[in-house]
Design goal:
Blueprint lengths: L21 H13 L3 E5 L20 E3 L5 H14 L6 E7 L1 H5 L2 H10 L4 E6 L39 H8 L3 E6 L3 H12 L5 E6 L3 H4 L6 H10 L6 E4 L2 E4 L8 H5 L10 H26 L4
Parallel strand pairs: 1-2, 1-3, 3-4, 4-6, 5-6
Antiparallel strand pairs: 5-7, 7-8
Helix pairs in contact: 1-6, 2-4
Length: about 300
């Protein structure tokens, strides 16, 4: 039977996000997959603003606002309280940006995953603190210009490689870990359906383009998400019960095809791009080696 995206919507069309915001598509697809019996916890982030001011709302499911660092703790409490009420069929979702996940919320996230709560943690990864003015986060990639890594005459762009939280969760042994993008909704929804079958913590990192912070035309948002996968910058994978499967894109493109559309990388020279390409190659090699190892575990 061919795969189809659920038609029912749990996100209303009105919201206050920027044009081309990838985070809105990420939420829309997550709720399509998980359905009405879902509770969403959101920390300080773009999504704390996107639903609009009271009494208006964007989502047709309950939504709990939390402190920046507390998403992991809050979804743990929500899960336990729903279970006590006999509502085990409800999905508890932490929906946090990369600032609230890779940096400020990492300890809380790790604790929730270690305790084994039956929750979903969705990291919508727009690669910066976009809601507060495009500051760099741990998830900002090498070479990117942000307001706290301005290029200027000293070329003070971000010098550190991207912290990939999904890789950290995989190393922690979380039962289900995946990466996804807004450009491939079928892949994202399929992964969420697979995650629902897992009793325990689930972590999914979704690359969510930010035209405002990436200096990107809004109409290019989905296209750039595809190029991130096709260039190897953001590999798609699924780690389930100790077995890793890496998706090989049907089409591959050069790294410059991905970088050239985004103003945040316009200052990079050939040497800088070669350095980023080396990181991309090394990480893909690591993932493919781990895929091979988990498929054929050593005795």
């Amino acid at each position: 039977m061919p795969f189809s995206i659920p038609r029912e919507e749990f996100m209303e069309p009105g919201h206050t996000a920027c044009h081309g915001c990838g985070a809105t598509l990420a939420m829309r697809y997550v709720l399509k997959a998980l359905g009405k019996n879902t509770v969403v916890s959101v920390p300080a982030s773009c999504w704390a603003v996107i639903p609009g001011a009271m009494p208006y709302r964007t989502l047709d499911v309950p939504m709990v606002y939390t402190p920046f660092a507390a998403t992991g703790a809050v979804i743990s409490g929500l899960r336990e309280s729903l279970d006590i009420q006999g509502k085990e069929d409800y999905n508890v979702v932490g929906f946090a940006g990369d600032g609230g996940t890779a940096d400020i919320g990492l300890q809380s996230l790790s604790g929730a995953m270690e305790r084994g709560h039956n929750v979903f943690y969705i990291m919508y990864d727009n690669e910066g603190y976009m809601n507060t003015g495009v500051q760099r986060s741990g998830s900002t990639p090498f070479g990117a210009e942000t307001t706290t890594t301005p290029v200027g005459i000293d070329r003070n762009f971000k010098r550190q490689n991207k912290k990939v939280v999904a890789d950290i969760m995989m190393a922690q042994g979380v039962p289900y870990v995946a990466t996804a993008t807004i450009a491939y909704p079928e892949d994202l929804i399929r992964k969420l359906n697979n995650a629902r079958k897992i009793q325990g913590p689930k972590f999914i990192q979704i690359l969510a383009t930010c035209p405002t912070g990436w200096y990107l035309p809004p109409e290019k948002s989905v296209e750039v998400s595809k190029l991130a996968v096709q260039s190897g910058v953001f590999p798609l994978y699924e780690f389930q019960n100790g077995v890793l499967r890496v998706s090989k894109p049907s089409r591959t493109v050069g790294l410059k095809d991905y970088l050239s559309i985004q103003g945040r990388f316009s200052h990079l020279n050939d040497e800088d791009i070669a350095q980023l390409q080396e990181y991309v190659n090394n990480r893909m090699t690591m993932l493919l080696e781990k895929e091979k190892d988990t498929a054929n575990p050593r005795p």
